[in-house]
Amino acid sequence: MGGNPPGLAHRQPKAVSSSNERPGPESGAADSGCGLCGAGSAFVRYDFGAHRILRCPGCTFMWLDPQPSAAELHEVYGADYYRNEQFFDAGGDTIYGYHDYLSERFVKQQDLKRVVDRISTLLGGTGEGGDGRGAEVRGQRFLDVGCGLGYLLDVAHDRGFAVEGIDYNRSAVDWIARKYRFSAACGDFMAYEGEPCDAVTMLDVIEHLPQPFDALAKAASLTRPGGIFAVSTMDCDSFVSRLLGRRLEDFRRTREHLYFFNRRTMRAGLERAGFEVLRIDTYGLTIRLDALMKRARLAVPGIGAGLERLVRWAGLSRQQIHFDPRTKMIVYARRTAGT
Domain span at residue 215? Predict the structure, then answer.
């Protein structure tokens, strides 16, 4: 994709050469080779000083360089990941995890119910988008990769699925064991073993994984032929994503966001893994206005701060809205037979 959106300063892309030896995720070393098409060069799309985001000039896939070490990632996914009280501080190093994920449970589950309903419909349909009747899902197996605090599993369980989840964060898995009627495994998804499921989900997870295309192949191996896989992530080439550029929160999460997809690269990765893409939708969120204004302040401080004061003055801080800036996508795909 060429150039910057109107109104933003243009900067010539910097060419980056790739060495023949690709470092592993543990090294934190620069790695400018494209993991999707194999191109050996890339240009700097966004520069954050200690980190930069590179873009493949051929297939348009984007990734963080250098990658965090395994120890650095382990530090990020600690006990404070779901309650990061420094999230809205000015420093970029504090933008990781969630400010108060527990308080967002019920609003998030409003959005997750739509995801589960869509999966149920696709399981019962034959063509693109399903036939609208849905499926009798009671007892069908549902695996959530990167299940966090179990909000999606809770919705799927209530819908009748037999749920299972896996997450890297020990605190999250322990929380699920205390709060729900189901449990989740703690560990590396790539080492997870289980029988193929009817539905597999990976929501806001793939951008965190050191080997995203291996993860898609792993997800395919855990989805039965004809089963449904749903994956959501940032759409790095949407209009708003390009307009805000390096100011956007998803790009600034340099401690945890390792890879960036657009619709083209996500489709290519899924098809290579053995999926047929059924539909790609934008993925908004239900959010309180006070939380939305705080996030706006991260991207555009002056405007965001003014809007935050206005919302507070009008007594609308606790008002909930469904907000879709079209910066995220959710892709539903069917596992093809014989792959």
Answer: 102-288+320-335
